[in-house]
Amino acid sequence: MSLPDTRALPNIIITGTPGCGKTSHAEQLAEQHPEMTHINVSVFAKENGCIEGWDSERDTSIVDEDKLLDKLEPLADKGGLIIDWHCCDIFPERWIDLVVVLRCNNTVLYDRLEKRGYKESKVQENVECEIMQVLVSDAKNSYDPSIVVELSSEDVDTLDQNVERISGWLDNWKAGHPEGESNRLP
């Protein structure tokens, strides 16, 4: 199968510690931009046979990242993805046009994760990840820092503001790339 040389739409990653609002942001953005496709990676991995086991300590599925990337590649090469996952550094840099790292106040995050019924150890691990800025660091180390944006995700007002900001970026990208973006390696 031949992959397209260009993609007409950008690919966006929305990442952050669990509980920061990734899925809410991605769903609202996809609602406002029906030309874009929301990929909740956790759901996509399960639906496409990309789960290789279970981590009982962390109470979560273990994703076969190679298989996941193989399944996502034809979609990413077409463009128009909003990738929603708790990490971003596995996705090839050539696929991605914008990385949005959602940040959340630790107390708010703790309460959100506790309400989800997470085990105390999982809540603590995720709050520590947020405190240590692990996902921001991963994003800036894996992609050109100029495409990495940190946004606060505290409540519905910030959700609306963030989606408006990402939506504006998306409109600017489309206007600035009337012929699309190359899928070729530089």
Polypeptide structure, described:
- The chain is α/β, with parallel strands linked by helices and 186 residues long.
- It has one domain: Rossmann fold, CATH 3.40.50.
- It has 7 helices and 9 strands; from the N terminus they run ββαβαββαββαααβαβ.
- It has a 5-stranded parallel beta sheet with strand order 3-6-2-7-8, with helices on both faces. It has a two-stranded antiparallel sheet with strand order 1-9.
- Strand 4 and strand 5 (60-63) form a beta hairpin.
- Helix 1 (22-32) crosses helix 7 (156-176) and helix 4 runs antiparallel to helix 5.
- The mean pLDDT is 94.
Quick structural gist:
Helices cover 45% and strands 20% of the residues. With 186 residues, it is an alpha/beta fold.
